[in-house]
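tool_log.txt
---
The assistant was asked to compare two proteins side by side. It first ran the structure predictor on the initial sequence, then on the second. Raw inputs and outputs are pasted verbatim so the downstream comparison step can read them without reformatting.
(1)
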Amino acid sequence: AGPRTMTAPIPGVVAAVMVEAGDTIEHGDELLTLDAMKMMNVIRSPWESTIATVHVEKGDRVAQGEPLVTFVPT
């Protein structure tokens, strides 16, 4: 299995990023928070993995389907 990319489930503004490239994460760990229509939505990891790339930073506006984080399997 190769790298997997998590995309934005909804459009919004990145309010916080809790991970960086090289971090090892567990299933359910917080990755980032999206502010969508004044509601904070915590985006959690669906996999146990290592962060390869973080595609966004705080303040970025994202569209639904835009890449957020790429993982490499552990």
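(2)
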Amino acid sequence: MPTSLADSAIANKLLEAAVRLFAHKGYRATSTREIVEAAGVTKPMLYYYFQSKEGLLAAALAHFMNAFHERLRHVFAEERESYEQLVELVWAHLDFCQGHKPLARLFYALYFGPDDQKGLVDLKQYTEPGHELLMQGVTRALETCLVRGDCEAELGMALHGMINIWVMAALNEELSLTHDLARRIVDDLLRGYRRN
């Protein structure tokens, strides 16, 4: 979505309706007619702002993922010790997914879904910035001697894994993702990585 359209109420209605429907029915099973009806706009508006259903999917992912990455950057903007920074990075992931459940459902469906769905968008362009930001927190934990110097990749993978497991559990079982859970995830992982 062009930056000039980011504040368009119509474009935002289309983005939100598309994410809800794609998450509920699946991308391929959702028609453009259903999207425009759910958004309360006309079909030409979808084509005006996004050119196609594929363009709408890419714009929706970019729109929400940009907001998510901005939230992660905000964690680094505030001065905190490395342990608290890891907790806040995990919490930012959990809280964002909890507040945007349709987007989280859509993302996991695209990421783990059938191979023919994976070609719809390049998910790496949406996941790479978040991965890099989480790894900055891990690197800082190494630099401040919070964890051993030889576990950067493993700790990064473990944090990603725990975040994904808890988000998927919350989506499937209606669990509540809390700040205390974020702290528990970091504490549990650091017990195995903490310096003696």
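---
observation on (2): Residues 107 and 113 are 9 Å apart (CA to CA). DSSP finds ten helices and no strands in the chain.
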